[in-house]
Protein backbone atom coordinates (compact mmCIF):
# COMPACT_ATOMS: atom_id res chain seq x y z
CA UNK A 1 0.00 0.00 0.00
CA UNK A 2 1.36 3.42 -0.93
CA UNK A 3 2.02 6.08 1.67
CA UNK A 4 -0.44 8.43 0.02
CA UNK A 5 -3.14 5.77 0.27
CA UNK A 6 -2.41 5.23 3.96
CA UNK A 7 -2.59 8.95 4.60
CA UNK A 8 -5.97 9.17 2.86
CA UNK A 9 -7.33 6.15 4.73
CA UNK A 10 -6.34 7.68 8.07
CA UNK A 11 -7.87 11.01 7.09
CA UNK A 12 -11.13 9.27 6.27
CA UNK A 13 -11.02 7.41 9.59
CA UNK A 14 -10.49 10.59 11.59
CA UNK A 15 -13.49 12.21 9.92
CA UNK A 16 -15.86 9.38 10.84
CA UNK A 17 -17.77 9.26 14.17
CA UNK A 18 -15.50 7.63 16.73
CA UNK A 19 -16.42 4.00 17.43
CA UNK A 20 -14.29 2.64 20.30
CA UNK A 21 -14.92 -0.97 19.38
CA UNK A 22 -14.23 -0.59 15.67
CA UNK A 23 -11.41 1.96 15.69
CA UNK A 24 -8.53 -0.52 16.21
CA UNK A 25 -9.63 -2.64 13.25
CA UNK A 26 -10.23 0.38 11.03
CA UNK A 27 -6.79 1.70 11.92
CA UNK A 28 -5.19 -1.63 11.02
CA UNK A 29 -7.17 -1.80 7.80
CA UNK A 30 -5.66 1.54 6.78
CA UNK A 31 -2.28 -0.18 6.75
CA UNK A 32 -3.50 -2.82 4.30
CA UNK A 33 -4.26 -5.57 6.80
CA UNK A 34 -6.55 -7.89 4.87
CA UNK A 35 -9.98 -9.22 5.81
CA UNK A 36 -8.61 -12.56 7.00
CA UNK A 37 -6.11 -10.90 9.33
CA UNK A 38 -8.79 -8.64 10.78
CA UNK A 39 -11.23 -11.54 11.20
CA UNK A 40 -8.68 -13.55 13.19
CA UNK A 41 -8.00 -10.56 15.42
CA UNK A 42 -11.73 -10.04 16.01
CA UNK A 43 -12.23 -13.68 16.88
CA UNK A 44 -9.31 -13.58 19.29
CA UNK A 45 -7.33 -16.20 17.39
CA UNK A 46 -4.35 -13.89 16.87
CA UNK A 47 -5.22 -11.04 19.24
CA UNK A 48 -2.57 -11.11 21.98
CA UNK A 49 -3.88 -8.19 24.07
CA UNK A 50 -4.07 -8.66 27.83
CA UNK A 51 -5.90 -5.35 28.32
CA UNK A 52 -9.00 -5.86 26.22
CA UNK A 53 -7.52 -4.06 23.26
CA UNK A 54 -6.19 -5.29 19.94
CA UNK A 55 -2.62 -6.53 19.76
CA UNK A 56 -1.13 -7.77 16.53
CA UNK A 57 2.16 -9.49 17.23
CA UNK A 58 5.30 -7.69 16.03
CA UNK A 59 3.07 -4.83 14.95
CA UNK A 60 0.95 -2.67 17.30
CA UNK A 61 -1.05 -2.78 20.55
CA UNK A 62 -4.15 -0.55 20.38
CA UNK A 63 -6.54 0.27 23.21
CA UNK A 64 -9.44 2.71 23.24
CA UNK A 65 -10.41 4.17 26.57
CA UNK A 66 -12.77 6.36 28.57
CA UNK A 67 -12.65 10.13 28.17
CA UNK A 68 -9.57 11.78 29.63
CA UNK A 69 -7.60 8.56 30.09
CA UNK A 70 -5.46 8.42 26.94
CA UNK A 71 -2.21 9.15 28.79
CA UNK A 72 -2.83 6.55 31.50
CA UNK A 73 -3.91 4.01 28.91
CA UNK A 74 -0.73 4.50 26.89
CA UNK A 75 1.29 3.91 30.06
CA UNK A 76 -0.65 0.70 30.69
CA UNK A 77 0.04 -0.46 27.14
CA UNK A 78 3.74 0.18 27.59
CA UNK A 79 3.78 -1.74 30.89
CA UNK A 80 1.78 -4.63 29.43
CA UNK A 81 3.55 -7.97 29.50
CA UNK A 82 1.70 -8.89 26.33
CA UNK A 83 3.15 -5.86 24.53
CA UNK A 84 6.64 -7.08 25.38
CA UNK A 85 5.98 -10.74 24.69
CA UNK A 86 4.38 -10.05 21.31
CA UNK A 87 7.25 -7.71 20.42
CA UNK A 88 4.88 -4.90 19.43
CA UNK A 89 6.60 -2.04 17.64
CA UNK A 90 3.98 0.58 18.48
CA UNK A 91 1.38 1.30 21.14
CA UNK A 92 -1.66 3.53 20.63
CA UNK A 93 -4.32 4.86 22.99
CA UNK A 94 -7.27 7.11 22.24
CA UNK A 95 -10.61 8.16 23.70
CA UNK A 96 -11.82 9.76 20.49
CA UNK A 97 -10.78 13.22 21.64
CA UNK A 98 -7.12 12.73 22.53
CA UNK A 99 -4.67 10.53 20.68
CA UNK A 100 -1.36 9.21 22.00
CA UNK A 101 1.09 6.75 20.50
CA UNK A 102 4.69 5.65 20.91
CA UNK A 103 7.24 3.99 18.68
CA UNK A 104 8.73 1.45 21.08
CA UNK A 105 11.86 1.08 18.96
CA UNK A 106 12.86 4.74 18.81
CA UNK A 107 10.95 6.11 21.79
CA UNK A 108 9.36 8.79 19.63
CA UNK A 109 5.83 9.77 20.58
CA UNK A 110 2.77 11.46 19.13
CA UNK A 111 0.38 13.39 21.38
CA UNK A 112 -2.38 15.28 19.59
CA UNK A 113 -6.10 15.81 19.22
CA UNK A 114 -7.82 12.81 17.65
CA UNK A 115 -8.87 14.83 14.61
CA UNK A 116 -5.23 15.69 13.92
CA UNK A 117 -3.68 12.23 14.05
CA UNK A 118 -3.67 11.81 10.24
CA UNK A 119 -1.08 14.62 10.15
CA UNK A 120 1.31 12.11 11.71
CA UNK A 121 0.64 9.30 9.26
CA UNK A 122 4.35 9.07 8.50
CA UNK A 123 5.04 8.18 12.14
CA UNK A 124 3.29 4.85 11.56
CA UNK A 125 4.66 4.04 8.11
CA UNK A 126 6.94 1.28 9.47
CA UNK A 127 3.71 -0.66 10.10
CA UNK A 128 3.40 -0.86 6.32
CA UNK A 129 7.06 -1.70 5.82
CA UNK A 130 7.94 1.85 4.79
CA UNK A 131 10.85 2.98 6.92
CA UNK A 132 13.40 4.64 4.67
CA UNK A 133 13.53 6.83 1.61
CA UNK A 134 14.09 4.84 -1.54
CA UNK A 135 17.67 5.05 -2.73
CA UNK A 136 18.07 7.88 -5.19
CA UNK A 137 20.23 5.92 -7.60
CA UNK A 138 19.78 8.24 -10.56
CA UNK A 139 21.89 10.96 -8.94
CA UNK A 140 25.37 11.37 -7.57
CA UNK A 141 24.49 10.51 -3.97
CA UNK A 142 24.24 7.13 -2.29
CA UNK A 143 21.71 8.06 0.39
CA UNK A 144 21.31 6.46 3.80
CA UNK A 145 18.16 8.38 4.65
CA UNK A 146 17.41 9.63 8.11
CA UNK A 147 13.91 9.43 9.56
CA UNK A 148 13.47 13.17 9.16
CA UNK A 149 14.44 13.10 5.51
CA UNK A 150 12.07 10.19 4.94
CA UNK A 151 9.20 12.13 6.49
CA UNK A 152 9.88 15.09 4.24
CA UNK A 153 10.10 12.89 1.14
CA UNK A 154 6.84 11.07 1.85
CA UNK A 155 5.02 14.26 2.82
CA UNK A 156 6.05 15.99 -0.40
CA UNK A 157 4.67 13.09 -2.44
CA UNK A 158 1.44 13.25 -0.47
CA UNK A 159 1.11 16.99 -1.07
CA UNK A 160 2.18 16.73 -4.71
CA UNK A 161 0.81 13.42 -6.06
CA UNK A 162 1.85 14.30 -9.60
CA UNK A 163 5.48 14.20 -8.45
CA UNK A 164 5.01 10.55 -7.50
CA UNK A 165 4.15 9.45 -11.03
CA UNK A 166 6.64 7.54 -13.14
CA UNK A 167 6.95 10.56 -15.43
CA UNK A 168 8.18 12.76 -12.57
CA UNK A 169 10.11 10.22 -10.49
CA UNK A 170 13.40 11.54 -11.83
CA UNK A 171 12.36 15.11 -10.93
CA UNK A 172 11.57 14.31 -7.30
CA UNK A 173 14.77 12.29 -6.94
CA UNK A 174 16.79 15.13 -8.44
CA UNK A 175 15.10 17.61 -6.12
CA UNK A 176 15.90 15.48 -3.05
CA UNK A 177 19.53 15.14 -4.16
CA UNK A 178 19.79 18.94 -4.42
CA UNK A 179 18.31 19.35 -0.93
CA UNK A 180 20.72 16.82 0.52
CA UNK A 181 23.65 18.66 -0.99
CA UNK A 182 22.39 21.88 0.60
CA UNK A 183 22.04 20.20 4.01
CA UNK A 184 25.58 18.88 3.69
CA UNK A 185 26.87 22.28 2.54
CA UNK A 186 25.33 23.87 5.62
CA UNK A 187 26.94 21.30 7.91
CA UNK A 188 30.37 21.75 6.36
CA UNK A 189 30.20 25.56 5.99
CA UNK A 190 30.39 25.45 2.21
CA UNK A 191 27.72 28.17 2.23
CA UNK A 192 29.41 30.01 5.09
CA UNK A 193 28.74 29.74 8.81
CA UNK A 194 25.46 29.42 10.71
CA UNK A 195 23.66 27.12 8.27
CA UNK A 196 22.94 29.75 5.63
CA UNK A 197 20.63 27.57 3.51
CA UNK A 198 18.27 26.67 6.35
CA UNK A 199 18.49 30.16 7.84
CA UNK A 200 17.56 31.71 4.50
CA UNK A 201 14.58 29.39 4.16
CA UNK A 202 13.42 30.27 7.67
CA UNK A 203 13.77 34.01 7.07
CA UNK A 204 12.55 34.33 3.49
CA UNK A 205 9.72 31.82 3.25
CA UNK A 206 6.31 32.55 4.75
CA UNK A 207 5.19 30.66 7.84
CA UNK A 208 2.12 29.44 5.96
CA UNK A 209 4.49 27.75 3.44
CA UNK A 210 2.79 29.48 0.50
CA UNK A 211 6.08 30.56 -1.09
CA UNK A 212 8.54 27.96 0.23
CA UNK A 213 8.83 26.38 -3.21
CA UNK A 214 9.59 29.76 -4.78
CA UNK A 215 12.34 30.54 -2.26
CA UNK A 216 13.99 27.16 -2.82
CA UNK A 217 13.71 27.51 -6.59
CA UNK A 218 15.42 30.91 -6.43
CA UNK A 219 18.27 29.48 -4.35
CA UNK A 220 18.71 26.61 -6.81
CA UNK A 221 18.79 29.10 -9.67
CA UNK A 222 21.48 31.12 -7.90
CA UNK A 223 23.59 27.98 -7.44
CA UNK A 224 23.34 27.35 -11.16
CA UNK A 225 24.29 30.91 -12.19
CA UNK A 226 27.86 32.15 -12.51
CA UNK A 227 28.72 35.40 -10.77
CA UNK A 228 29.11 37.38 -13.96
CA UNK A 229 25.67 36.26 -15.16
CA UNK A 230 23.64 36.97 -12.02
CA UNK A 231 22.59 40.49 -12.85
CA UNK A 232 21.10 39.37 -16.13
CA UNK A 233 19.46 36.42 -14.41
CA UNK A 234 17.91 38.84 -11.89
CA UNK A 235 19.13 36.91 -8.86
CA UNK A 236 17.82 38.78 -5.78
CA UNK A 237 20.28 40.13 -3.26
CA UNK A 238 19.21 37.70 -0.51
CA UNK A 239 20.18 34.76 -2.75
CA UNK A 240 23.32 36.27 -4.23
CA UNK A 241 25.51 35.11 -1.33
CA UNK A 242 25.20 31.49 -2.40
CA UNK A 243 28.05 30.18 -4.53
CA UNK A 244 27.84 28.87 -8.06
CA UNK A 245 27.87 25.06 -7.89
CA UNK A 246 29.26 23.47 -11.01
CA UNK A 247 29.06 19.80 -11.88
CA UNK A 248 25.50 19.76 -13.17
CA UNK A 249 23.58 19.09 -9.95
CA UNK A 250 21.67 22.39 -10.22
CA UNK A 251 21.50 22.60 -14.00
CA UNK A 252 18.25 22.23 -15.90
CA UNK A 253 14.80 22.79 -14.45
CA UNK A 254 14.54 24.45 -11.05
CA UNK A 255 10.86 23.78 -10.37
CA UNK A 256 10.16 22.69 -6.81
CA UNK A 257 7.17 20.83 -5.33
CA UNK A 258 4.67 22.78 -3.26
CA UNK A 259 5.23 22.68 0.50
CA UNK A 260 2.41 22.34 3.02
CA UNK A 261 2.90 23.66 6.56
CA UNK A 262 3.74 20.14 7.69
CA UNK A 263 6.30 19.66 4.91
CA UNK A 264 7.88 23.00 5.78
CA UNK A 265 8.17 21.93 9.42
CA UNK A 266 9.84 18.68 8.32
CA UNK A 267 12.25 20.68 6.18
CA UNK A 268 13.13 22.85 9.18
CA UNK A 269 13.70 19.71 11.26
CA UNK A 270 16.45 18.52 8.90
CA UNK A 271 19.01 20.49 10.87
CA UNK A 272 21.98 18.20 10.31
CA UNK A 273 22.84 15.82 7.56
CA UNK A 274 26.06 13.93 7.01
CA UNK A 275 26.70 13.25 3.36
CA UNK A 276 27.44 9.57 2.69
CA UNK A 277 30.09 8.47 0.22
CA UNK A 278 30.05 10.18 -3.14
CA UNK A 279 30.12 7.95 -6.19
CA UNK A 280 32.90 9.10 -8.51
Automatic annotation (TrEMBL):
Residues 1-157 form the MmeI-like N-terminal domain. Signal peptide: none annotated. Residues 170-250 form the MmeI-like helicase spacer domain. InterPro entries: MmeI_hel (IPR046819), MmeI_N (IPR046817). It comes from the Bacteria. This is Lactate dehydrogenase.
Amino acid sequence: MKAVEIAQALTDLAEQPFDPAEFPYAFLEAFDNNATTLKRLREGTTNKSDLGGVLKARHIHILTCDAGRAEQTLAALKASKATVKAKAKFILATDGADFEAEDLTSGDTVVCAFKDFPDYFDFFLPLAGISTVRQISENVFDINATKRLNRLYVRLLLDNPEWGTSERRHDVNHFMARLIFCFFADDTNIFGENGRFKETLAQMSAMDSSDTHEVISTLFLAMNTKREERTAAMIPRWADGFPYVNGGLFSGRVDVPQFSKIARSYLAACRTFTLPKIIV
